[in-house]
Amino acid sequence: MNILLENLTTETRNQRTLELDQLSPAAVLKLMQEEDEKVSLAVKEKLGEIEKVVTCVVQSFKQGGRLIYTGAGTSGRLGILDAVECVPTFGTGPDMVQGLIAGGETAIRQAVEGAEDSEEQGEADLKQLTLTHNDTVVGIAASGRTPYVIGALKYAARMGASTASLSCNPNAEISKYAQYPIEILTGAEILTGSTRLKAGTAQKMVLNMISTAAMIGIGKVYSNLMVDVQPTNEKLVIRAKSIISEITGCDMETASIYYERSHHQVKAAVVMLLAGLGLEEAQQRLQESGGFIRQAVQHHKGE
């Protein structure tokens, strides 16, 4: 294992930070910021690979499939974070985007020793989700060698699901088991081996890209507005009404009226206002257009 770790760029010592323990807070922060600047450039180098994964996820969604993240430690937590935030942001059901972590729910809050070392557990956890060929499974591991993730990817491939991987080392082991591998080369951390830093930042950026671009691809965004936002608190209710007003050009009072008439469905309210339709007709138009507001309105105008 020591020999393996020595071959991982995420485990090497950063020559710029050998005196880290002797630096002032200001100097530490400056070094961290300078190293973090490299992350965005590293992600930029892999936009082509990320695009392939987005295309795959969009296809899964259109076929009624799911996006499933699987990982251990920081990687697993980041997958769960992205999955959980899709529900209020894009109005998805809790099953549409899911995250698995080695060690289960306990591992979200505290480390579960040895949980990531079992390929069998990675497979077992994925089996619990009744995987189908319409799903896309994304294995996340900064090291690129986590057995739990490899086990999950192997099982996903056997079940005919689409597979992708996200790691931060070149020629990562998990890349061998993914149809669409992504390797973001973030290099040595300022704190040796602490992949919650640059590697974690890179993973968060890529997961943001995958889920957001995929949701745009299935009609959950109009212009740059989150039109499937779930108004689950006062702030989001105000945002929902503001979105209706912004898109249609109506005042907030009118937006509030149509917010209620649409049963708190922003997209339906927008189509009702722009196309002069009742709720049922607006909902039908959205269904026929695959959830895209522009097509729903244009289709009506073309009649």
Automatic annotation (TrEMBL):
UniProt entry tagged with the keyword Lyase: yes
EC number, UniProt record: 4.2.1.126
Catalytic activity, reaction form: N-acetyl-D-muramate 6-phosphate + H2O = N-acetyl-D-glucosamine 6-phosphate + (R)-lactate
Residues annotated as domain SIS: 57-220
CDD domains for this protein: SIS_Etherase
Function text: Specifically catalyzes the cleavage of the D-lactyl ether substituent of MurNAc 6-phosphate, producing GlcNAc 6-phosphate and D-lactate.
Complex and partners: Homodimer.
Recorded family membership: Belongs to the GCKR-like family. MurNAc-6-P etherase subfamily.
UniProt protein name: N-acetylmuramic acid 6-phosphate etherase
